[in-house]
Amino acid sequence: MPTDTTLDFGTIIGRVRQLEPGIRARADEIDELRRLPDDLVAQLREAGVFRLAMPAEWGGPDLTPAQQTEIVEEVSRIDASVGWCVMIGMDSGIFARYLEPAVARRLFPRLDMITAGWLPPAGLAREVDGGYLVDGHWRFGSGCTHADLIVGGCTVHAAESWRVIVAQPSDFTIVDTWHTTGLAGSGSRDYTASNLFVPREHTFSFDQPIHPGPLTRQREAINRKMPGVPLGAARAALDYVHQVAARRTERPGGMRWARSPRVWRAIGSCEMRLSAARSFVYSSLADQWAELTAGREPSPRVRAAVALARYHAFREARDVVGELYDLIGGEAVYSARTPLDRIHRDLITACQHVVAQSRTLEHAGELLLGGQPDYAFI
């Protein structure tokens, strides 16, 4: 793999901030397209946001999960759909570690390549000479409209095992199903394959990382940076309400919002809740990373904390934005006048992801009581 100019955390997040005015100006366009514009994808590639997990020996930044999360958070503060696509697309550097090195270098010849796809086994793979014949219909292919490679989870028919295929976008049929409440710009469409031959070397199991190390010591590496999306989106909503409070007056009465105890209470509450959720995310990731880099398996308590922090970030961010929406009142319903409408819908949609569902509480509780949840990514 060619070693592009090495980009570090500070350089990448600085480039993201330079893109902010342009992304904000295109928010309506992104929603109307229901995908990211091609030229914006090119700008994001150049910024380096899709290479966050690429190994250092390939010239990648090899960022920690906390650093990955912080960059996803910063992008999502600008636009949640863009942040979601970055969060998904950067999995290239994680998936590459599950493939034989020579195969990974062929499939990922550039550091800024984007992957998309649905990992649960919605496909059926039949073993044949040299690989598999695959049929499947996968949902929620976020970023599949601009991906360089698409993955799909499959059940291997004879062995009843779970493997993930890696194939070219042209091998699939993209189905335009993405007409949704929020995250409209993520382009999370369905995709299908019929009788697709996939070489065995272009498949992997999460049980067998070929590139061992802290990042892949546990299977849930792909989930660790997810809280960046709700944390960033909710931060954007709070920043907006701060701006409104500086200029708005109560009606009737004429009291400035900046002098209103009602507004103070709401903003104080939301800042407290979001800051607490954010602290839980980053402290739990730090505890987990300390165990992983020391070569130890994280304890059930550490594993549960990471999952619970992620769940809490999604739910608390959604509820904080709901409280801000109520604070703004009738003005909040006008999507052309305020970003709160879009952010609210984006977080409602994001919270339908499995990591933000109540089964996460069940999995964490089972871990804490000595059990082994059947969910692969905890």
Q: What topology does this entry show?
A:
Layout: H1 9-25, H2 27-33, H3 38-47, H4 65-78, H5 80-89, H6 92-95, H7 101-107, E1 115-128, E2 131-141, E3 149-156, E4 161-167, E5 173-175, E6 189-199, E7 203-204, H8 228-247, H9 261-293, H10 300-328, H11 340-350, H12 359-368
Parallel strand pairs: 1-3
Antiparallel strand pairs: 1-2, 2-6, 3-4, 4-7, 5-6
Helix pairs in contact: 1-3, 1-4, 4-5, 4-8, 5-8, 8-9, 8-10, 8-11, 9-10, 10-11, 10-12
List the main descriptive attributes of the protein structure presented here.
globular, 7 strands, Butyryl-CoA Dehydrogenase, subunit A, domain 3, Butyryl-Coa Dehydrogenase, subunit A, domain 1, alpha+beta, 3 domains, 378 residues, seven-stranded mixed sheet
Architecture overview:
The protein is of the alpha+beta class and 378 residues long. The chain folds into three domains: 99 residues, Butyryl-Coa Dehydrogenase, subunit A, domain 1 (Orthogonal Bundle); 90 residues, Butyryl-CoA Dehydrogenase, subunit A, domain 2 (Beta Barrel); 143 residues, Butyryl-CoA Dehydrogenase, subunit A, domain 3. 46% of the residues lie in helices and 15% in strands. The protein has twelve helices and seven strands. The protein has a seven-stranded mixed beta sheet with strand order 5-6-2-1-3-4-7, with no helix packed on it. Strand 1 and strand 2 form a beta hairpin. Helix 8 packs antiparallel against helix 9 and helix 9 runs antiparallel to helix 10. The protein is globular, with a radius of gyration of 21 Å. The mean pLDDT is 96. It comes from Acrocarpospora macrocephala. Pfam families: Acyl-CoA_dh_2 (PF08028), Acyl-CoA_dh_N (PF02771). GO terms for molecular function: acyl-CoA dehydrogenase activity; flavin adenine dinucleotide binding. This is Acyl-CoA dehydrogenase. Keywords: Oxidoreductase.
